[in-house]
Amino acid sequence: MGTTILITLAVFLIVTLLLVALLLFAKAKLTPSGSVKIEINGEKTVEVDAGSTLLSTLSEAKIFLPSACGGGGTCAMCKCQVLEGGGDVLPTEVGHLTRTEQRENVRLACQVKVKQDLKIRVPDEVFSIKKFNCTVRSNDNVATFIKEFILDIDGGETLHFEAGGYIQIDIPPYELDYKTFDVAPEYRGDWDKFDMWRFVSKVDEDVTRAYSMANYPEERGIIML
């Protein structure tokens, strides 16, 4: 009986190790790795790591394509021309691209995987998009489940925008317990009623989210969401 159990465990362990080795081998062969070059508008070339989407790869290179959905493939705002190296248009892109755009190699940057050297073309105004560091001034309730989020722009910089504009916020991994929220007394009754304190928000990877700005363009030095 004891010998049978030992043999079974040994076989199980060997099979498991073989499967792990097979997965690692497949990952090494199928997952792009190393550095590739992206030529932008025939003028600028950046060297980046392969494996991520074109949208996030350009963002890491300080080139920020607009993306109201944060790279979810639903807003179709991150369009650019992929002249070489992008492969075929994916089914997730077809509904957002006209036939003319497809013929002109227009793609959604959030759906294009960087696997090899690329040649792309982006609108010139993209190069004027900046990334700001901010400090949270306040995050107060203005209704039971609605908050007014105010940020101070670091370094005295000014954000120029038109009414109705939006920003994208990079959110790092975090874990947040709702019990730690400072909810104003006039709203605590509803939070108690729905037992909102039991929830925990956890994010394991970087996330980008888009938010419309609530402040007017003449207000300097702050962002209100």
Q: Briefly, what is this?
A:
The protein is α+β, with helices and mostly antiparallel strands. It has helices spanning 2-30, 54-60, 91-94, 99-103, 185-193, and strands at 35-40, 44-49, 79-84, 106-108, 118-121, 134-143, 146-153, 166-171, 174-177, 200-203, 207-212, 222-224. The chain folds into two domains: 35-128, Ubiquitin-like (UB roll); 134-224, Beta Barrel (Elongation Factor Tu (Ef-tu), domain 3), CATH 2.40.30.
- How large is the radius of gyration? 24 Å
Percent helix among the residues?
Answer: 10-25%
Sheet having the most strands: 5 strands, mixed
Q: How many structural domains does the protein architecture include?
A: 2
Distance between the termini: 68 Å
CATH superfamily of the largest domain: Beta-grasp domain
Q: What is the level-2 CATH architecture name of the largest domain? A: Roll
Could you state the order of secondary-structure elements as H and E?
A: HEEHEHHEEEEEEHEEE
**CATH fold topology of the largest domain:** Ubiquitin-like (UB roll)
Low-confidence stretches: none
